[in-house]
Amino acid sequence: IILWKISGVNLAITYDSKMTWLQITLVVTTVLNLQVLQTKASVGDVVDYVWEARETGNDNDPEHKQAYWREDLGVNAHHWNWHTVYAVNADPAKHKLDRKGELFYYMHRQLVNRYDVERMSLGMPRVVPMDKWDEKIPEGLAPHLVHGKTGVAYSPRTTNTVLTDLPGLITMAEMRTYRSRVDEAISSGKFKYEDGTEGPLDIRLLGNTVEANFDCPNRPYYAGDWGLHNNGHDLLGMVHDPKDMYNSRANIGVMGDVKTACRDPGFYRWHKFVDDEFEKYEQTRTPFTDKELSFPGMKVKRVRLLDSAGKKTKSLKTMMTKKVVDIEYWPDFNRRDDTKVKFTYPALDHEKFSYQIKVKNFKKTAVKATVRIFIAPKKNSANKVLTMDEYRTLYFEMDTFVQEIKPGVSTFKRKSSESLVTIPYDQMVNSIKPVPEADETKRAYCGCGWPENLLLPRGNAQGMEFSLVVMLTNYEDDKSDSSGGDPLPTCAKSVRYCGLLNNKWPEKHDMGYPFNRRASAKNIEEFVKNKSNIETKYFKIFHKA
Questions:
Q1: Is the predicted pLDDT of residue 166 greater than 90, yes or no?
Q2: Contact indicator for 73, 443 with CB cutoff of 8 Å
Q3: Where is the Tyrosinase copper-binding domain (predicted)?
Q4: Which of 60, 130, 221, 294 is deepest in the core (most CB within 10 A)?
Q5: 452 belongs to the catalytic site
């Protein structure tokens, strides 16, 4: 038992003799503020705990600028819930998770793209892929978190560590073997099955293989137990004690837990490496033809942005706000069931807005259109207009929905809050509350979705320039047969990032269409040229300090 006395409050922590003093101190510093507040609370009180980004670092760390984004509750809840719905070890015979490997690729590409654009907003360099495994990793992390069930602290990672073998789990030699086999499959376009036969490689096979989920048809050859992606998380999560010399390897860092991995700058570097594997594959594919990108008889005449008052605008606004969560289960050794806790944390948010889209249907009957909305920065860090390859690795989906278009000219609006990418804040908060096991799938699915408050990137005080792309395609050609699946929970759904549970993905196109494949166009202006069903508009995002 360690006894700590601070501010007149006695704090008792029971610890394991195998724990290092660093781990004990982390437990103490994480619990202390909550314990002080709880001890001073009267029965029935509401205890307020405020979390600030400075809790986990300061400006001596160049990565600290973006801590508010990495530590956003919604980002981490989305990632956790996605990997709960699309569990790596889900039995394919019991869980019909349509296009699981492809969605693994697409969702994580969108996550990294959004992170990259946020860095650009802050004047930071783009993410560097963690593909040189012998080099030192300059990014460290001290999460100041304890596991809610065990009370054990997540281990920190010091700066300039190097990935190394985890005896009994994975070696770097094995990682290089799996990497070379995946690369060989990409370059040859052939996948080797466990029975010795070969077949064509596609994005779904590649996604299942890189993640090494149980849908992968040849895990022993391409992945071993956990493959490239999963072992990367463990390598970073256990690098503080890789040989378990101090019996602390099990006290994994945040990278080893899907609930917390997004807090680590290393997460985005690792996933940039993973995404580059998929990009190698996309570079082998034939670009979409003009016919594959067209919608005969349809023209997008004008795209406008409307502010929260419904007035047309050429700019959108973001700001930092305070989000409040009522916590029922929290790390407290003297828990009082009738004492409530309100947890407040800083979060990026934006003023609500809408899209106003004017179109012309040249046909004599109404048609259903798939409306696709994307944004990307107009320029790169060197202040040059993005090349098409840069655009493809920086754009992100804002919304995709179905709209009936009447003959002739018509105008329709779509609210930002209606996006099929995001979920509402309250729904996200509800998803982190414990539920009976029978309701776990519903909880996870309803909590899967990009946080609505982070739909827009931060922008900057001067107004960061973005391109808005609106594309209409023929819904009758796009749609898949999604009938016959399980009933979906009643909640707002992030269909574009989280699919439809055991139902089919709602369309036939590649995820990321039309920007997943390499393009012959030099930039986005050339890409949309002479395509009547696509329109682009430039606007600015201002951040109010």
A1: yes
A2: no
A3: 264-275
A4: 130
A5: no
Residue type, position 512, single letter: G
- Token look-up 């706000």 returns 321
**Domain shared by 125 and 109, yes or no:** yes
Q: Per-residue pLDDT for 341 more than 60? A: yes
Task: Spot the catalytic one: 63, 211, 282, 535.
Answer: 211
User: What is the structure's pLDDT at 11?
Assistant: 44
Clarify whether residues 279 and 294 are in a common domain.
no
- Give residue 332's pLDDT: 46
172-181, 268-277, 302-311, 318-327: which has the minimum mean pLDDT?
318-327
Same domain, 75 and 134: yes
Does a structural domain hold residue 259? yes
Residue 501 DSSP label: T
**Distance between CA atoms of residues 213 and 87, nearest Å:** 8
Domain with residue 231: its CATH number is: 1.10.1280.10
Tell whether 45 is covered by a domain: no
CATH code, 418 = 2.60.40.1520
Structure tokens at 318: 């973001």
Answer for the pair 435, 443: CB distance below 8 angstroms, yes or no.
Answer: yes
Angstrom distance (rounded) from CA 69 to CA 262: 9
Domain boundary among 228, 258, 283: 283
What average pLDDT does this structure show over 141-158? Answer: 88
Q: Which of 38-42, 212-216, 361-365, 475-479 has the lowest mean pLDDT?
A: 38-42
271 is a domain residue: yes
Among 189, 389, 386, smallest CA distance to 287 is for 389
Neighbours of 379 (CB within 10 A): 15
Structure-block tokens of residue 404: 């009936």
Residue 484 sits at the vertex; the CA angle it makes with 508 and 214, to the nearest 5 degrees, is 70
Residues 245 and 319 in one domain: no
CA atoms in the 13 A half-sphere facing the CB of 168 = 6
The span from the CA of 20 to the CA of 188, in Å, is 49
Does 108 share its domain with 175? yes
In this structure, are strands 408-415 and 422-423 parallel, antiparallel, or unpaired? unpaired
Distance of CA 285 to the CA centre of its chain: 25
Are both 114 and 247 inside the same structural domain? yes
* 346-403 confidence digits (pLDDT tens): 999 999 999 999 999 999 999 999 999 999 999 999 999 999 999 999 999 999 999 9
Provide the pLDDT confidence category of residue 297 given band limits of 50, 70 and 90. Answer: very high
The residue segments making up the domain with residue 10 are: 1-40
Question: How many other C-beta atoms can be found within 10 angstroms of the C-beta atom of residue 431?
Answer: 24
- Please give the Cα distance from 138 to 61 (Å, whole number): 10
Mark whether 432 and 504 lie in a shared domain: yes
Are residues 483 and 526 both part of a single domain?
yes
The per-residue pLDDT for range 385-395, each reduced to its tens digit, is 999 999 999 99
Upper half-sphere CA count for residue 126 (Cβ side, 13 Å): 16
The predicted pLDDT at position 545 comes to 83
Q: Is residue 47 part of a domain?
A: no
